Amino acid sequence: MAKEPSTVAEEAGGNSFFKELSSAAAKKALTPLLAAAATAGTTYLTRKTTEIWQDDVLPKVREKGGGKAVAKEALEKVTDLLSGRPARLLTELAERLGEAAPSEPPADQGSNERGGETESEAQREEERKQRQQRRQQRQRALQKSAST
After folding, report:
1. Cβ–Cβ under 8 Å, residues 67 and 61
2. pTM here?
3. Between 20 and 30 A from 110 (CA), which of 20, 21, 37, 132?
4. What is d(CA 51, CA 57) in angstroms, rounded to the nearest whole number?
């Protein structure tokens, strides 16, 4: 007697068909969720790195005299660890940066007094207010999205 088609299909890997079908359905269901999670993660990291840069790193860079001064200082430290041709090349590069960098931090040069406050202090205060406003806007948006 000949075997029925259903038993032949099972013997030929019918179970793998159902496994592939459920695997494909799971992939289709999870793909949008994974994309949303990746987007949310990227957004969070971008926001946090920007906040860290503005709140922590940028004031220190400005304090040291700007990006060129920081780069010059870093090159000089690396040059101390090297010898030979690489050290000479880095020394030359640091000298070029030193020529282009101001001798004093920009905040100290010709600060205009406004009511006992320098321009840089007024600018920092304005930036603080703007950051606070952005935080409040994000908080309101989160509360609004949570309530809907």
Report:
1. yes
2. 0.40
3. 132
4. 9
Q: What is the pLDDT of residue 105?
A: 47
**Lookup: tokens for 119:** 């321009």
- CB-CB neighbours of 72 under 10 Å: 22
Tell me, what DSSP letter sits at residue 107? G
How far apart CA 26 and CA 119 sit, in angstroms, is 58
Burial 124-136 (b: 16+ CB within 10 A, else e): eeeeeeeeeeeee
**Three-state SS at 117:** strand
Please give the angle made by the CA atoms of 50, 53 and 59, to the nearest 5 degrees: 145
Cβ within 8 Å of residue 67, ≥6 positions away: 61
CA 78 to mean position of chain CA atoms: 25
Tell me the per-residue pLDDT of 22-79, one tens digit each, with 9 for 90 and over. 888 888 888 999 999 999 999 999 999 999 999 999 999 999 888 888 888 888 888 8
- How far from each other are the two terminal CA atoms of the chain, in whole angstroms? 64
Tell me the torsion sign for CA atoms 114, 118, 121, 126: positive
Single-letter amino acid code for the residue at 15: N
